[in-house]
């Protein structure tokens, strides 16, 4: 059996299912094994990943590049570093620079000890 290394940039990872196979749990961006914002999962059955990616090629995380697979861990880590700037839209908000339309409440200002 060949193995693959899988990168997943979704915060909580994913649990992948295929008929007649055990599910595979991918580490996400919030895991302890992160490179370039991608959770790195090693030892995944390569044939499972090939079949899953083919079946789900139109799934937004696959099309967006948030889930990828490589044969070698070093290649996966290099790719993850290269793609580190890729945004999923699930990144945490910076409270010091809120996006347009988002305003800090008086309650949260008081909680962090800030003045208006």
Question: pLDDT under 50 segments (min length 5)?
Answer: none
Q: Report strand order across the widest sheet.
A: 4-5-1-6
Into which percentage range does the β-strand content fall? 15-25%
| Largest sheet features | 4 strands, antiparallel
H/E series: EEEEEHHEHH
State the helicity in percent bands.
Answer: 25-40%
**Cα separation of the termini:** 61 Å
Number of strands: 6
Number of helices: 4
Oligomer: single chain
Based on CA inertia axes, which overall geometry fits? elongated
- Rg, Å, rounded: 18 Å
Question: How would you summarize what this structure contains?
Answer:
With 116 residues, the chain is of the alpha+beta class.
Write up what this structure looks like.
This protein has four helices and six strands; from the N terminus they run E-E-E-E-E-H-H-E-H-H. The radius of gyration is 18 Å and the shape is elongated. The strands form two sheets. Strands 4-5-1-6 form a four-stranded antiparallel beta sheet. The chain has a two-stranded antiparallel sheet with strand order 2-3. It starts with a strand and ends in a 5-residue tail after the last helix. The protein has helices at 46-55, 60-63, 73-82, 106-111, and strands at residues 3-8, 14-16, 24-26, 34-35, 38-45, 67-70. By secondary structure, it is an alpha+beta fold. The model has no long low-confidence stretch (mean pLDDT 92). It is 26% helix and 22% strand.
């Amino acid at each position: 059996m060949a193995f693959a290394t899988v990168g997943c940039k979704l915060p909580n990872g994913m649990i992948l299912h295929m008929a007649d196979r055990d599910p595979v749990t991918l580490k996400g961006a919030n895991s302890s094994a992160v490179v370039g914002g991608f959770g790195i999962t090693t030892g995944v059955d390569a044939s499972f990943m090939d079949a899953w990616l083919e079946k789900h090629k139109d799934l937004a995380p696959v099309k967006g590049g948030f889930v990828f697979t490589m044969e070698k861990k070093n290649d996966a880590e290099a790719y993850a570093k290269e793609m580190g700037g890729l945004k999923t839209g699930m990144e945490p908000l910076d409270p010091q620079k809120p996006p347009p339309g988002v305003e800090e409440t008086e309650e949260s200002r008081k909680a962090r000890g800030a003045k208006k």
